[in-house]
Each structure stands twice: as C-alpha cells, then as structure tokens.
Amino acid sequence: MRSTLSKIAAAVTAGALTLTLAACGGSDAGPATLRVGTLSDAPPSIYLENGRFTGYDNELLRDIAKREGFEVEFVGTEFSSLLAGVAGGKFDIGSSTISSTEARKKTVAFSNGYNTGFTTVVTAKGANLKDTGALGGKRLGVVQGSVQDEFAGKVAGAQVVRFPDYNAGFAQLKNGTLDGWVVPQDIGQKYLDQNPNVPLELGYTVEDKDTPSAFAVAKKNTELLNKLNDGLAKAVADGTVARIYGQFYKNTPLSKELQQGGPGLTVKNLGA
To answer: How many CA atoms lie within 13 Å of 95's alpha carbon, on the beta-carbon side?
Structure first.
C-alpha cells in the first residue's frame, strides 16, 4: 500500500511540475501567438485574399513579429469596434491603417508610424465635389469611427451616413444613394483601378497631417509596444519597409522618413 501511495504522490508531483513549467513559458512553449484585429476589405492596406489576411499593414506586422519572436493570428472585425477590442483585451494588436489621433490615444497606445496618407471623397464622374463648400448638403458615406467619419462630421450641412465596412459604402455610391464616399485616398484609388468601367472619380482630397498610421495596443502593454517599435525601426533601417510598401503601392511614393535608413515616424502617446 505504501508503495502504491508513493507512486501516486510522485505522479501528482510530476504533473504539478509540468503544469508549472507550461504556465511559466518553459522551453517547450514556443513563441506566443497574439490576436490581431484587422479588416478584410480595404486594399492595399488591409484585405483578405484567398482566405489570408494580407496588405501592407499586415505583411509588415508579420515581418515585425518574426523579428521580435512572436506569432500573429489575424481576426476580421469592424473598424468601429476595433480600438475598444484592443483596449479591452479582445485583440492584442489593431492593424487597420489606424490614424494615431489625439482622441484615439485616450483609449489605446500607438506604435511609431509606418505610413502617412490622405483623405479623399470618391464621387460620380462630373459631380464636381472639389472643395468642402461643394460638400455641404450632400450625403457623405463613411466607415463608422474612422478619421473620415470625423472629417465628414465637420462639413457644414452634410448628411453623414455610416457603414461598418468599405464594401458597403462603395456599393451604395454605385447605386446613387450617396453623393460621396469618404475614404483614405489609397483605398479609393485602388477601387478605381480595380473597377475601371465604374463611372467614379476622386474629388476633394486633404492630407492627414501629424497622424501617421500605426499599430494599436492596450495602453498598459508597454512590453509589446516596445517590441513593435523595435521591429519597425529595424525594418525601416534595412529597407524592409520600403520593399513591402513597394509591393502594395505601385504609384505612391513612400515617405522619406520611412525609406531605408530614415528616422521613422515617431508617435507620442498620451499618459495612461
């Protein structure tokens, strides 16, 4: 009996030791896998192709993850809930050409920037919506919670119609139920390039100053933030950012700060 009890005790001890090592990330644990919230319909930045999340943002994040010793699992979501999902722990990282605005810094922390861009209004050809004055009284579609949502809300007299994703807005614009579809310029241009027979054009366009696109993390997760910034700096320095950017942006020059050996785009986060 004593021998049997001794064997049971030894087995329990061994099991407890195994659990402890696993919980501490022992040698058999392997790289951590982080959940990344992203979109599926906004090329060339973030999109789904043949069942795989890709685009400039996501391929750059894959490179950073490899450098910094973690893996990523991409999960599709709506933009309007993305930052809340990051802040609340549903996602470890937000990757969705997210402009690092002061308002958003109250909710999440941002990595240093990896892109700059413009906001544009896609319209029917000949609509002549070339300035903010022409946008007054028009029905303007936006992705809910985006920088473009904020832009359209400041246009005097505009009727702002909010959508969960980009495809829905483009469909409404084609049907004539919107006067303008306010989107990042690269997304608008990509749609026109892919649909040359659709009678649409780019109208009023404005530069998004001082709010570069960046990856979002929970404000308390400084370790992950440091890893993202470290990996991004290395990717700028050795030309990887320029290489990946060139795969997805054929006609738009990369910011000189992000070209090989450039200083990068620093984002200053608000206090916790």
So the answer is: 32
